[in-house]
Each structure stands twice: as structure tokens, then as C-alpha cells.
């Protein structure tokens, strides 16, 4: 069973600027999990869908860009679910860098 990890990143950039910065910094997302690579990403409106791959596992993610926050959900496969707290802490530390 997958383990969803959610984080909220507050910002004061406005929706369009936050979306633009995420688009330009999406490559930084793979830094949150050692050995991970960003294998796919696509936009649907203001929602970014992405896939990371690490140790043979796929992590599906979704980032909803809102006016004053980005709400992100990452579904960890069972093998990575035991690291959910550590991955969430890393995401909270690294994900805001996409907005810089």
C-alpha cells in the first residue's frame, strides 16, 4: 500500500510567478531523495504531475500551485513508505528552493 506524503509551501509570489519558478526549478526536486531522478513531468493547468525514480521504485507526485501556497502530494511505494517521515522532512527543506 502506498504512503501519501503531503507538504504545503507558502509563498507571496502569486500563482503565475510561483508556477513559472517551479517550472524552472523542477530539476531540484530530485535532490530531495538520494539517488532519485526526475523521469517525467507535465502540467495540467496550475497542477504539475511528476514522477521520480529511486532504487527501482516510482514516486508519483502532484503539485497544485495556488495563489499563496503550493500543495504537494507524493505517493511513496511500499518499499519507500518506511522512510515517509525522513522524505517529508527533506521535501519541506528542499522543495521551497524551487520557488527561489
CATH class descriptor: Alpha Beta
| Helix and strand composition category | alpha+beta
The Cα radius of gyration reads 13 Å
- Total count of helical runs of at least 4 residues: 3
Poorly predicted residue ranges:
none
Q: How many strands, what sense, and barrel or not for the largest sheet?
A: 5 strands, antiparallel
For the termini, the CA-CA separation is 34 Å
Share of β-strand residues: 35-45%
Average the pLDDT over all residues and give the rounded result: 90
Series of secondary-structure elements, N-terminal to C-terminal: EHEEEEHH
The helical percent reads 25-40%
Strand order of the largest sheet: 1-5-4-3-2
Number of strands: 5
Architecture in CATH?
Answer: 2-Layer Sandwich
CATH-defined superfamily: START domain
- Number of structurally distinct domains: 1
Per the CATH scheme, the topology name is: Alpha-D-Glucose-1,6-Bisphosphate, Chain A, domain 4
Query: What's the overall geometry?
Result: globular
In short:
Helix content is 26%, strand content 41%.
Can you give keywords for this protein?
100 residues, alpha+beta, Alpha-D-Glucose-1,6-Bisphosphate, Chain A, domain 4, five-stranded antiparallel beta sheet, 3 helices, 26% helix
